[in-house]
Amino acid sequence: MYTTGEKLQLIVQFHEEVPKLFNQYSLSEKHASRDNEDLPSAVLNGFASTLADNNSIGKQRTQSKVEDDEDDEVAEDIEQMVQHFNRPEDTEVGVVLSFQGSVRVRVTESFQEDVSLMFESFLHRNGTLYTCFTQNGTRMYFDDENGIVPFPEELYGEGKFINTQNKPDKAAGDIKQDINGSSGYLENERTSSFYIPGKGMTMTYIFEERTNVCKYFDSDSGAWLILPLLWEANMDFIKHRVEQVKDALPSITDYKEILAALRLCNYDPDEVISMFYAMFGDSLAAIPEQNIESMSFTRDVYEKERQIENLKNQLEERERDLENMRLKCKHLEEEKDHLIRRTEVLQNQVDQLQSEHEKFLKEISEFYRKSSETPNPGPSTLPLKKEVFLKLIKEAHEINVCNNQLRVVAVHDLSDMGQQLKNVQNLMVNMKKSNHELEEIRALYQRETLERKLLYNQLQELRGNIRVFCRCRRDDGKGEHLAFPSDEDILVNHNGSKKRFRFDKVFLPQCTQEDVYEGTLPIIKSCADGYNVCILAYGQTGSGKTYTMMGNDQRPGVNIRSIRELLRICQERERIKYTIKISMLEIYNETLRDLLSQNGNTQLEIRSQGKTIFMPGLTETEVLTENDIKTTMSLGEKNRTVASTKMNTER
Ligand SMILES: Nc1ncnc2c1ncn2[C@@H]1O[C@H](COP(=O)(O)OP(=O)(O)OP(=O)(O)O)[C@@H](O)[C@H]1O
């Protein structure tokens, strides 16, 4: 994992010259681990009970849980075969099945006959289990495509029949008698035999016993339900007991196996230890190194799962905090804007009052000046008439009144202005405080965003740095060769044999371009956080690599959608300056060609310096908008098409 600062580059390779190792490694690794995991449970749980008519079996019937996909398939096969032998509706058929032992089909009185079929299991060396039976001297089996067909002869040399026609021995009969004291066709229903390495064929019997069961109260259904194994594994009470068993028997590495044994033994670790000793004896003393490794690996997986869960919770909590802060920030910003507007209004009022005040003072001083300049007509020079004199006194009085009124108004206005100034000062102080608070919240927000990003990328790393997805293309012309038992598995049916492949995710033929893109979205986000990411399409010619990566105008592929998302993230993060550059190159017949060069045909060389691999002269085109991307990519596409046409003509 490298951090690359601000430079992001998405290199898309188109051709299938990419080493196959990449895919094969992850496939074989996963498949191998699954095989190891499944073997004990496939064998131990190989008991299916399918009941066409429960009543016909009475109280003794056994309902075993088939916990494995393969077991399911076998049970299904058997059911299909039984249907093949089924009679019309008026016939009751009671069936007791054990696919490792024998199967009896009892037909009631209306048929007046008993039909007994012996079922056999054939274990192919690739792990496929075939359930066969013999009809008219021919060994048959149920094939998913063709129904019931003769068992292919070529398979005989590729595997072996297990527990073929194992008749229960005397001991089994004795136990049966002791326990039930009954006889009849149900006699061996719980009896079977099983091959134990080192011990040979060993008789088994299903005992009915009371055991403690750990349940939880499910408030949705209002019922007490059995805890799934994985949940139970995380309970301190259980963990402690599992550790006790592990400490005593380090060679027992399968966590699930210990848990299952604990369940069986009433959660008594001593009993579990005794049971394992009885089963495996001295071989328990030898501790193969790889078992210890695998044990610590299992522990690591649980630990990682817990970490992922914690990280997820932390991430959610941070996101909630961030949302609150974002709201608070927004609120403070609005308050700040409001205060600024209010301050501006008040400032205008103050300015207006001040100019009015100045104007008023001017008027007063003008008035005084004029009144002092008015010549005092002396009694000697101007004989003052009585009326004029009275008029002047009246006017002087009025002016005095006016003057006093103006003084009152001026004093009032001045105190008003003082108050307003005080308000403005308070507002300014508040605004500074809010600004400070805003800065603090902004810093906190940035810190939280950074932490969220780190947690997010940590989560991605924990989920696995290399993820292999498989997209299956619709092909209406060909029959159904693929089955999809889960989101992560593909079952390939080839000439009657089935092979299971496991991926991080399987996209069914009906999955859309959006679905596939959704799968890649998390790593696009990591790319914007400065991590190197690579999305690679690999597959047979015509399998849909170009369609998935490029798509068309109506259904754009992963490339266009990813860069669209990158552009969106870059625009959202205003404070960071991102540069997005595109390079396109093609590898064909061991030759590298720069698809964005001027002539579209420049050959390139690969060089390495330390751990860095680069191609000197590879064109990098900067893109700013989605249109730029489309133009650049269609230029690359055009050069690619032209080049391949040329090559075709040359051949
Ligand atoms: N999921 C799909 N849905 C619809 N059409 C598809 C799908 N996948 C592929 N196709 C179509 O199948 C054809 C072959 O696909 P595409 O060219 O993508 O294969 P390719 O793996 O890139 O082949 P090559 O290796 O020869 O370049 C194209 O016409 C494409 O439109």
Automatic annotation (TrEMBL):
GO terms for molecular function: ATP binding; microtubule binding; microtubule motor activity. Keywords: ATP-binding, Coiled coil, Cytoplasm, Cytoskeleton, Motor protein, Nucleotide-binding. Belongs to the TRAFAC class myosin-kinesin ATPase superfamily. Kinesin family. Residues 465-651 form the Kinesin motor domain. One of its GO terms (biological process) is microtubule-based movement. Residues 301-370, 421-465 form a coiled coil. Its main location: cytoplasm. Gene3D superfamilies: Kinesin motor domain. This is Kinesin klp-3. The lineage of its organism: Eukaryota, Metazoa, Chordata, Craniata, Vertebrata. It holds the Pfam family Kinesin. GO terms for cellular component: microtubule cytoskeleton. InterPro entries: Kinesin-like_fam (IPR027640), Kinesin_motor_dom (IPR001752), Kinesin_motor_dom_sf (IPR036961), P-loop_NTPase (IPR027417). It is found in: Cytoplasm, Cytoskeleton. It comes from the Eukaryota. ATP binds at residues 539-546.
